[in-house]
Amino acid sequence: MTASTMLAHRLGRRAVLVLGAAALAGFAVREYLLTPEDFAGGALSVEEAHARAASGKVLLVDIRRPDEWASTGIGAGAQPLDMRREDFAAVLDELAGGDRGRPIALICARGVRSARLANQLAQAGFTGIIDVPEGMLGSRAGPGWLRAGLPVVAHAEALE
User: Fold this and answer.
1) What single string gives the DSSP state of each residue in 52-77?
2) pLDDT: is 151 or 25 the higher one?
3) Which of 20, 96, 106, 130 is deepest in the core (most CB within 10 A)?
4) Do 73 and 102 belong to one domain?
5) Pairing between strand 74-75 and 42-43?
6) For residue 95, is it left (φ>0), alpha (ψ between -120 and 50) or beta?
7) Displacement of CA 23 from its chain's centroid (Å)
8) Same domain, 29 and 47
9) Residue 76: closest CA among 156, 133, 151, 146
């Protein structure tokens, strides 16, 4: 075997190792991003969240982005409030009528952002935070709002 053949062979092995390591790192990042944090507070199925929101027993807040609301609609009875807003906690406090102990259920796409935000809000003094871990699209917790066949309203209607 010539020196150039040996070098190409060694580089090929290195390339395979580097690509494999990159793939594993990508998988790890994906799993981190799609795995919700543990949330010590309550959790509701999408059916329970819908029923409680319809009866006024819980304030259901869809924390996704406006483009997500436009894509799927918003669960009937939910208030859209983009979690990226700088004034998110203040607006949520306003929606809850200033009652930080009011039951507030958070829903996102797959339960990852809602669990993380639920922890942050609990630390900020909201004591009635509840997670909807299935989300709108489904997760390990269940099929999600859309596949459960629960009603949705168009983004524009929800803002009225």
Assistant:
1) HHHTTSSEEEE-S-HHHHHHH-EETT
2) 151
3) 106
4) yes
5) unpaired
6) alpha
7) 24
8) no
9) 151
pLDDT of residue 155: 78
Nearest to 105 by CA among 83, 125, 133: 133
Q: pLDDT tens for residues 82-96?
A: 999 999 999 999 999
Q: What is the mean pLDDT of residues 29-50?
A: 70
The domain of 16 spans 1-34
The count of structural domains within the chain is: 2
Residues 36/115, Cβ–Cβ less than 8 Å: yes
φ, ψ at 116 (rounded to 5°): -65, -45
Rg (CA), the chain: 21
Check: pTM over 0.85? Answer yes or no: no
Where are any strands of DSSP class E within the chain? 42-43, 59-62, 74-75, 78-80, 104-107, 129-131, 152-153
**DSSP secondary structure code for residue 129 in this structure:** E
Query: Among 129, 53, 58, which Cα is nearest to 89's?
Result: 129
Check: CB of residue 152 under 8 Å from CB of residue 75: yes
Length of the chain: 160
Tell me the mean pLDDT in the region 1-30. Answer: 57
- Same domain as 58, residue 7: no
Tell me the C-alpha distance between 152 and 160, whole Å.
Answer: 14
